[in-house]
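Write out structure tokens for Spore protein.
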Amino acid sequence: MGAGQNRSSNSLVVPQANAALDQLKYEVAQELGIAIPQDGYYGNMATRDTGAIGGNITRRLVQIAEQQLAGK
């Protein structure tokens, strides 16, 4: 697989959510002071950094879901 291709077998239930998730990834990375590689290759990034981005994205998605369920 080339740079920027998704190696995960997971697929989004709503493919249109891809852009929103990408935007969220960049926002979280910026908040954490982590630069996302422009070429899409994450091999040179520390595992700690990619894990921090993923963990914070998950935390943010849970907060959004909780707010929606609470009717806010």
